[in-house]
Structure formats: structure tokens, C-alpha cells
Amino acid sequence: MLENFVHNLIYSTYKFIDSWGLWALFLFSITESIVNPVPPDVFLPFAASKFGVLKVTFAALAGNLIGAIISYVAFYYFKDHFSSMLLRNKYYLRARQLLEKWEVTAVIVAALTPIPYKLMCWSAGFLELNFVKFIVASILARGLRFFVVASVGRWSLEAFMTILKEG
Q: At residue 81, what are phi and psi to the nearest 5 degrees?
């Protein structure tokens, strides 16, 4: 059931990007840093083939940073309301340990790897990581990730589209 939901979400977003272009990618990228389980990486090859690697990288990065700022600020200012819920979540506890020990390095690792970046955004605000360090690390790491995925993906778009259509 969850697999079907994710597939439908991916396909719907693919169609949204096909219709609305870079604005759709930008909006989708905002949600990924807040709550969306599907990273924008899935759509970068298709979007890059239509709009170019640099435009796609910038749209995804700009949206992702806005979402990251929203998450950071929400968890920074409302941490008292979230603390009882989060302290019981094993994924949050792992993110907290990483962030307390490694700070900016943890943000960069989460931004470059499959670790859900939104967990780092939430944790950075909740644990009051230096906002400037958080944003700079996010810009560097997410920008690099989106650029590489868009570039490589653009070259292998045919295989990507086959995988997406077959579900």
C-alpha cells in the first residue's frame, strides 16, 4: 500500500513538473525539507532534460532551502511542543546524536546521502544549531547533490524513464 502511494506521488509530481515546469520542482523541493518523503532527486533528470542542469539545480536548491528554513524556524520556536513527541522517535534520536557530535558535518552528510534531510532540518532548529552554519552547509551540500544528480541523470534519462514507468 505504501509502495503504491509513493509510486502515485512520484508519477503525479512527474506530471506536475511536466505541466508547470521549474515552479513545480521548486514547490516540491520546499515540501521535501519539511514533510515530503520523496526527495526532488527523483525528478531532476527529467527536469534537467527539459530545462537544463543549472536551472534545475537552482530551482531545487532554492525550494529546498526555503523548506529547510521553515523547518528550522518551526522547530526552533516550537521545540517545547515537539519535544515529547520527538524524544520517543528512534530516527530523531539518531539525528540528535549525530548533530550534537558532528554539527555541520552531520548536516552535510544528511544533505548528501539518503538520510532524510528533513530530520536534520528539524534537529538543527530543535537543538539550536548556528543558523548561518546550517544554511551554508545546506547550500554547499544540497547544491552539489542536486547538480550531480541532474547532470548524471540527464545523461541516463532513457533508463530512468523506463524505471519510473514500470513502477
A: -75, -30
Q: How many residues does the chain have?
A: 167
CA 40 – CA 149 distance, rounded (Å): 10
pTM (2 d.p.): 0.81
Report pLDDT digits (tens) over 4-18. Answer: 777 787 778 778 888
Residues 146, 165, 63: CA angle, nearest 5 degrees: 25
User: What domain count does the chain have?
Assistant: 1
Q: Which three cell numbers stand for residue 8?
A: 502515485
**Distance of alpha carbon 39 from alpha carbon 9, whole angstroms:** 11
Separation in Å, CA 160 to CA 13, 113, 117, 136: 15, 19, 23, 31
CB neighbours of residue 67 within 10 Å: 24
Domain with 123 in it:
2-166
Give the model confidence (pLDDT) of 49-89 as tens digits: 889 999 999 999 999 999 999 999 999 998 877 676 666 67
